[in-house]
Amino acid sequence: MRTPIIAGNWKLHMNPKQTTEFVAAVKDKLPEASKVEALICAPAVDLESLANAAAGTNLRVGAENAYFEDEGAFTGETSPKVLKEMGMNYCIIGHSERRGYFHETDEEINKKAKALFANGVTPIICCGESLETREANKQEDWVVSQIKAALAGLSADQVSSLVIAYEPIWAIGTGKTASSDQAEEMCKTIRDTVKDLYNEETAENVRIQYGGSVNPGNVKELMAKPDIDGGLVGGASLKPDSFLELVNYQD
Ligand SMILES: O=C(CO)COP(=O)(O)O
């Protein structure tokens, strides 16, 4: 059985003080980690506060990006080794905003996945098509190619343990959610791709999130789909009440 994973991606929001206050507001109302993993991925400048506030609670913690080298002359980058030292459980890589605004390539995302594994941090690998690609009905080819590139050279055990987030770009921050059927269709395609690349067991183990305007009103319907194991949530993860409604969607 795959444990559902609902993650907030705070993007470039929140400061260390707000981070501490947020965790204080949610920490006693989180689900058991064996029932639903509740995760916050925060900006690098907030991670120390996040780790300190979340210690001893059911909240899992993560970063929004990392570099593929542990150290060196790479001004402005974040070390995966230090993320591990700080207690990070997860790190998002390949978010469409990083691919779009910061020109990250599939090859870099693959290197980042390997660097995170080398340090014992679990990657959340994002994929998803633009509106233009969907309108041309090329979304499956697009996403399958992103997944193949991101997973290149990873072992079946590694892929079993990681998280893939399907986030159609046209549904991010737009209030326009993919229908639960559209989301399920692509998450199933991703699982089938993992099965083709690896084996049935790996495909059954890998957890696949949907992201794009997930909110307390649509989370239940999305989570009811057989191939959707979680949500990667931007805007609706920024307020404690809304985050709690999301992670406690089963209640
Ligand atoms: O990009 C997202 C999460 O990574 C989705 O953002 P929204 O939930 O704000 O649409």
TrEMBL record:
Keyword Isomerase assigned: yes
Active-site positions on this chain: 95 (electrophile), 167 (proton acceptor)
Annotated EC: 5.3.1.1
Main location as per UniProt: cytoplasm
Pathway(s) served: Carbohydrate biosynthesis; gluconeogenesis; Carbohydrate degradation; glycolysis; D-glyceraldehyde 3-phosphate from glycerone phosphate: step 1/1
Localisation: Cytoplasm
Reaction catalyzed: D-glyceraldehyde 3-phosphate = dihydroxyacetone phosphate
Keyword Isomerase belongs to the record: yes
Residues reported in the UniProt entry to bind substrate: 9-11, 173, 213, 234-235
HAMAP family named among the record's database cross-references: TIM_B (MF_00147_B)
Function: Involved in the gluconeogenesis. Catalyzes stereospecifically the conversion of dihydroxyacetone phosphate (DHAP) to D-glyceraldehyde-3-phosphate (G3P).
NCBIfam families tied to this protein: tim
Subunit structure: Homodimer.
Family matches, as PANTHER family: TRIOSEPHOSPHATE ISOMERASE
Protein name stated in the entry: Triosephosphate isomerase
Organism from which the protein derives: Lactobacillus melliventris
Lineage: Bacteria, Bacillati, Bacillota, Bacilli, Lactobacillales
Primary gene name: tpiA
